[in-house]
């Protein structure tokens, strides 16, 4: 039996011109997670990450917290979908930067609608693969882990979309459930799979044990 730890990236820069960059808090979250892994004596025999900047920065922070160095395998199938392109399929006009709770709620309502239509094959957001191809990119990473890391611990750093897709793929959830899983994933949360050469099994989802102490209450974020 092996263990795969899927980690969502640290807090990025939602609403900024360049989202794909960790905030100062996002870096702290990543280092803190690495400290937690080190404290628990968890070591990784394999390191895999998406190719986005926030994925690589999060992995670097985790390794910093673990006081560990290591080469990782880059996997573009673990990259996040383009939320702006998804929203544009149902709302062709440019959205204003959200500045209030109401605007944030409107943003996520549109995102839910766009995701549902993309997953159903009704729309193909500009510059994005079909949903079937997106799922294939995620499942191919899971296949790689099973084929090459049996009996080992593997760390995979990615985004909320691929993590929820992986969970949905393993459990056979409906698109609606996969969307809800996606929109509730916390930054640097851990989703844990046990795996054999034949299959993955969900052990835990969206856990933040490294942030459970009250001193880290303000470090729990979703963006």
TrEMBL record:
Coiled-coil positions: none
Species of the source: Caenimonas koreensis DSM 17982
Keyword Hydrolase in annotation: yes
GO MF entries: hydrolase activity
One Pfam family here: His_Phos_1
Keyword annotations of the record: Hydrolase
CDD domains, alphabetized: HP_PGM_like (cd07067)
Keyword RNA-binding: no
InterPro entries reported for this sequence: His_Pase_superF_clade-1 (IPR013078), His_PPase_superfam (IPR029033), Mito_Ser/Thr_phosphatase (IPR051021)
Protein name, UniProt field: Histidine phosphatase family protein
